[in-house]
Structure formats: C-alpha cells, structure tokens
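Q: Structure for this?
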Amino acid sequence: MMDPALLLLYVLVFPGLLFLVGYGFLLQFVDRKLAARMQARVGPPLLQPFADFVKMLAKETITPTGVKRADFDWAPLLAFAAVATAFMYVPVIGLSPFAFQGDLILVLYLLTVPSIVLFLLGWLSRNIFATLGGVRAITQLFIYEVPFFLALLAPAIMAGSWSISVIVAWQASHPWFALLQPIGFVVALIGLQAKLERTPFDIPEAETEIVAGPWTELTGRRLALMHLTMDIALVAGSALVAALFLGGPLLPWTIEPAWLAGLAGFGLFLAKTLAILLVLTSLRMAMGRVRIDQLNDFGWKYLASAAILQVFVVLAMNAWWAP
Amino acid sequence: MPEIVVPIGPHHPALKEPVNFKVIADGELIVRLELDISYNHRGIEKAAESRDFIKVVPLLERVCGICSHSHTTTFVKGIEEAMKLTIPKRAQYLRTVVAELERMHSHLLWLGVAAHEIGFNTLFMWTWRDREAVQDSLEELTGNRVNYGINEVGGVRRDISDREAVRVLDRLPLLEDRIAKYREMVAHEPTTLARFRGVGRLTRTEALSYGTVGPTARASGVEYDIRRDDPYLAYEEMPWEIVTDTHGDVFGRTLVRIGELLESLKIVRYGLENMPGGPVKVPAPRGGPRAEILSRYEAPRGELAHFMRTNNTDKVERLDIRTPTLANWTSVAVSLVGQNLADIPVVVAAIDPCLSCTSRVTIVDREERETKTLTWEELRDHGKRFYREKRGV
Amino acid sequence: MSEGNVVLEMLRNLARKPATVLYPKEKLPVPEAFRGRIAIRDENCIGCTKCAIICPTECIDMVASEREVEVKGGKKIVRRKKPVVHLFACIRCGLCEEYCPTDPKAIYLTTEPSGSGTDKDVVVQ
C-alpha cells in the first residue's frame, strides 16, 4: 500500500482530480479540433474548453419556479463525483493502487450515474422538453447497457478476474483483448459512444427536436459542472476501454529505471486513449442521429446479440484451453 | 404517458423562422397538430399598393431572402404582360440563369439544413461550403449574394461580360462533381436512410388533394412543373428534364431536390454558353393599363403565384402573393399524425418551409370559437378602436 | 456501403487546409459588380433630387447647399440642394446611381462593405 501522502497526491493531483479535469479539457479540444478539420473548418484553439468552462461558471444560475434549488445543485455534483471516483480504479501509470476484486463492477455502475442524474434533472425541471429528454436518456440507458456490460464482461471471464488492474496485467503477457475479442471491442466502442450521448446516440440531447432535453434548464455553474462531468466521462470511458481491450499502460517488457517505466506507461495511456478518441470522433462526425425506436431495434437485434455471441465464444475458448 | 402538449415554436432550435406547432403527443407518438403561421406577417401586400413599379421591386425582393429573385421575376413578368411589353432575348436568358442559380443555392441550403435536422452536421458543413461557389457566382453576375436587384420592369438592370460568364462556367464542373457525390452519400448513408425513409409519406392522391406543390408534390409522383406546363422566360429553349420520384417520403423529396440541382446546373451552363446578344432592357411605360394578371413561377419551393390588378396608374391596385410554402403546410399537418416526435423537424424541413413568404394573419375569435378573415375596413375600425381603448389615442 | 464515402472524405479533409477564409488576415476578392457602401461625389452633383425621389427606402434627404455648377452644354447654374444619405437605412439597391444624370456619377455605390455601427443617424454626404 502506498504511503498516505503519496496516495493523497494520486487522488487529488495526478492522476487524480486535477489531471482528470485537465485531460478532459485536452480531449475535448482534440475532439472538437479533429471534428472541425474533418468538416473543412478551422476549429477552436487549445484553451477553448477551459475558456468555455470558466465562462459558464461566471454566468447567472437560473432556477425555474417550483423547482427545489438544492436538488438542482447536488445532482450535477453527484454525477461529477461518481465519474471522478470511477476513474480512480482505472490504471493510468501502472496499476491502480485502489484495485480490488470487483472494481470493474463498481466502475461500471459508477459510470451509469450521469445518465440517471440526467433523467432526474429532466424529471425535476418541470419542463416538457426536459422530461422528454430525461425519459429518452433512461430508455437509451436500458438499451445500450446490456451489450456494453456483456462486452466488458468477456475480458473479465478470459482473464479470470473482476479487477481491472488484473485484467491489464494479464494482457502484458498475452495478446490484447482487442485482437482476441474483436466483436466485443466493437460493441464496447459503440456502447461507449452511446454512454457519452454522442452522435449517432445523442438522442436525449437532440437539439433540433427537444431543444436541449434534460440540459434545458441547466444554467451557469450547474451547466459547467455537468458539461465537465461528460468530459471526464469521456476520459474515464476511453481509459476503461483502453485498459480492458488495449492493454492499458503496461508494456509487454520491463524497462529498468522505475520512473522510466512509469513515464512509458503514461505515454502509452495517452496514446491509447487518444486513439480511441479518434475512432469516437470519426463515428460522431460520420453519421446523423437515429430515433429512439430505431436505436431500440438496433440495440437489441444487433448489439445485444453480438455481445452475447462474444461471451459464448469466450466461454468456449476458455473451455477449450482449460486453465 | 398521458397526452402532453409539446410546443414546437415559436422559438425552437429546429425552426429557422417563427411558427407555432402545438403538438399533442402520447409519449413519442403524435396524435394531433395545430398550426399557427402568423408570426412573420409584415404587411408587404399592402405596402406594395403605395409604391410605383420601380420602387416596388426592391420591396418584393425582400419578401424572402432565399427566393427573392422568384418574387421579383413573377411580379415583373406579370406587369410586363399587363403592359404587353416584350423584353429582349438576352434579358430572358439572364433572368433564367439567375433564377436557376438561385434554385441551386436554395437546394444546397436545404440539403445542409435537412442534414442538420437529423444531427448530421458534417454534411451540413460540406454542402454549405459548396454553396459558396454558387453565391460567389451570383455576386459576380448581379452584385450581391442575396437580394440580387437585377430585375426591373422591361428587362434586367445589369449586363454581364464574357469574362464574368467564363468565371461562373469554370466553377460548374467541381459543383457537378460534389452534387453527384452528395447524391451517393444520401442514398447510402445508413442513418440518413433510417431517418428519411418512410417518414412523412404522402401518396399521389393525397398530394393532389391537399394541394402540395413543388418538390414535395413531385416526390409523390405528381409530374407538374410550371417551367414546363406554363412556360415563361427562356425555359422552352433549354434542354432540361422534370425530376420526379415515387417514394413520396422525405427520402423522395431529397432525391428530387438533388436531381433538380443537377438539372439547374445544366440550364445555367446552357444559358451562359448560348447567351444571345443584344440589349438587356427596353424602356417601359410608367403606368400599366387596366388588367388582372395571374403570374406563375416555379420557385425553388414550388408554384409561386402573384395575382395583380392594375388600374391605369403607376402602382398596383391589389397584389396577392400565394407562396408555395402556404400550399404545403396542410401536408405537414396531415403526414405528421402517427409519426414520432423526432420526425417533426425532418418532415417540416422536407417541405423547405419559408415562413417569411407564408405568413398570413387569421383572426381567432375566442368567445365565438370561430376563425375568419377581416376586410380592410373592418381591420381599420379594429385598429382605431384598439388604440382608442388601450392607448387613449 | 457509402458510409465509407463519408469517412474517406472526412479523412481527406484532415489533410487539406480548411475551407475557411481567415478574415481579416486573408481577404476574398470582391467582384467589381459588388454593390457596397454608398458614397457621394459632391463636386458633380447638380441637385436634381432624382436620387431622393427614386430611393425605395426614402433614405436620401436633400439639404440646402448652394453652389455654382456647370451642366452639360457649358452653362453655369446655381444648384440649391445636395443629397445626404442615412447610411444604415440604405439597402444598396443602386437605383440612385442608375438614375443620377451626371457623369461621373455624383452618387454611387463603392465596393467597400457598408460596415455596421450603433448610431442610426450616421449620414454620408
């Protein structure tokens, strides 16, 4: 166990809260810049996401009449806290010091909190658009969550552990799960896009249909915090997929000075999460939005079946090459 | 979920102009639609009665920004018909070329907006970038990107040089390429197909009975285009085809508009290459004889009709503008029943609504529970009463 | 499947320069036909008020201003009025330029952009 001062540094600064927020801003910048260049536009400058955050903090926070201010205040905070906590268990430089058996399940559950918070915000907003958006958010949650969980279950089965750090360590001496379980990898990426509510799955926030869905009545600090939550969810989600499928920050060979190994691991972490972001951005830019009933069809017919198939394949493979 | 009233408009990100849809929905399914289109009324028909034939043309240009040339051309050719004036060939060709360039810019704009309504912002950005080529051409030919100011009674105000014609012609091959690419993309991209197919379906009989016009009707198999069936300007001399489709849904309308883009490009190319020489205007008399003229024109959105009554003065006595969007609204209200809430922006965008053109005022009497239209005298009395009672004037 | 077309185009765009013109560092060429900001050449104006009469928005006021001018045929007359344009009411239709009888035109449209401002009563004279 690490000494408490170092642990505090880990949690609060690096790779904890400060790094998480900073990297969230960086990934948002890369996402927006890449998207803009793909559309033949120029795109925002490097500090734009930070500037947006500061600007939103400075704006007036309006609470609609009849809504309890306290609810509106703690809901985004809850979502932010959940995602930040989830990130603690994902390996960033080497294995996570908080790892324990079952932390994968904990992370998955914590990452569903933003969607539930959005539903709550929609419900509490007393606004027809927000309610519709909240209902859509929950419906979408039900649709993609099953395939997403199953796809992330498959590496756990093959590595024989419920801890993300153990799965990452397993991949240091075996091929990556992206190669061993390609179907699961694809399903996980699609599920991640749906979890982050990005096109083609930005149905709860469909700007041209229901104004801003559950985000309609969020203003000022609450909007800044909720926006930031989605940004760090992007980081946490990509880091999770990178850890489970692309081997995380571990190298298949050991490097001698420990600090160099740490640095190399961190570099790998950055590279892998950026690669996943590239895929997610291209997916976001290349398609339009689907309808919720079409997502229902697609999710249950194709995604869920693919994920179940992947789990069966893994079980068969496990039985074939008995441990 | 019980029935809820979702107010789409007058302020809504899906709408470019204010219109009020009260959608009564059961969950995500639409049960009923109530329409109010009076938000953009500016009194242009009345204002046109106090301006002479030179000053009224800039006013009519500003009925709508996207189809401004349509309105001026319709009016001006109607007045020329009343005065029994024949304008020179070169002027006809110039008007046609500008009209087709306007159709191209309108359809490219529409393609971008339709993509934006389904969240496909990439296609939105690309089509609007290519639209810049059309806007640059219009700027070179007429002097302005919108509200071209090129029409006057008796011809066109400005002639174009060969160099300008060549510059426009040079832009056309790349545009043709891009439009063909968009046709490919739209016809095969999975989310576009999922959102456009089967949405807002109108059968041929429905289209005819609700009076839809333009690409909305042509997508349901109605083969009617004013440029062919009631020809005007130089369309009879140019080689072009009517574009129809049998899908009847938003996908069909997309295909029709992309087809019309390519046809318009052909007309522009033919017009610029075969432009006859000669003057571009003839002197027009100041006033028009007594006449009642119905002037029709195929605007980018459909059939545009101007009814004008002249009475031997230099102003119109009455001008009535029936725009294509007004004719298409019924089809929206009808085809949206039973569809999803998410389809509203798609179906509304598919008729290419131009609310600036459309707005009509309807008087709703709450106590009597009836709607009616007022005569001019009734309106004046109402106005006097209003200001006397409410403002103490 | 044509999704590939979209993705290919997107990747190709990554390699190219963006389509944006970085105004004001880069500027677009303005065609000579462009109807821009209105301007007045006072030395040519003979005060006939045709521009004010024809203007659709009635944004041209004629103000008193006496000056001797030379008209066609060599005669010298005293012009009594000159036009003054409300810049932000002008719709740049060019009718005043078309109907102005002098050569070079006393009132004309330049190729400069009209600009914007907060003073509704800004005039050009």
